[in-house]
Amino acid sequence: MQFKGKTAIITGSNSGIGLGVARSLAAQGADVVLNSFTDRPEDHALAADLGRAFGVEARYIAADLADPAAARSLVEKAGRCDILVNNAGIQHVAPVDQFPVDKWDRIIAINLSSAFHTAAIALPMMRSAGWGRIVNIASAHGLTASPFKSAYIAAKHGVVGLTKTIALETAEEPITCNAICPGYVLTPLVEAQIPDQMKVHGMDRETVIREVMLLRQPSREFATVEQLGGTTVFLCSDAAAQITGTTISVDGGWTAL
Fold it and tell me: 60 catalytic, yes or no?
């Protein structure tokens, strides 16, 4: 229970990677704040269930992270932030000359700018507490590129740069800032895409995963939300106190190519 008494805010955490990270931190005793843009009874019930499962305080705070004021208010409403995990993100695929301006703006706002806004409010709280950890969920696309994903790739490259800057600004303090760069992760969203890919390519499940979805992931295996949760726990631990300003790739060898 290494994080007992500490509060973790995880953006974009009512499913997928964010929820997996929240569970891993709660399992280590952290009180957690879940977040997404919806404000449904099931969102609050999810937090309550997580709190009961791990014996911690768990809350859900809705915030549309495309809005700078809402992103900052999320941390303010939490009241405390010892661990900040910036995970919220969206995607859109189109060539640069056909990329909708509103999609570009929203992706940059949610995937990049929100991490700046949450960190700006969280850092004074961490300094007051005398300890802090920021973990930004970037992507293999924060270190490399693919066609038709200009906004996502620009945002994730920006997250890596923001991570380095925050690390340098806090280097002489008991605060660290790092980025995790996942490859393809088996989330409910990705799982839902598999049947369609099977139909389009006329392949069975195993073949479409290995030969289409994981073509650029040399391990030919998805990363899991539990693995990303475990990596986050490590980066927040005392063992990682001298790890700051870097990226950890959880991508099955993608960025080794």
Answer: no
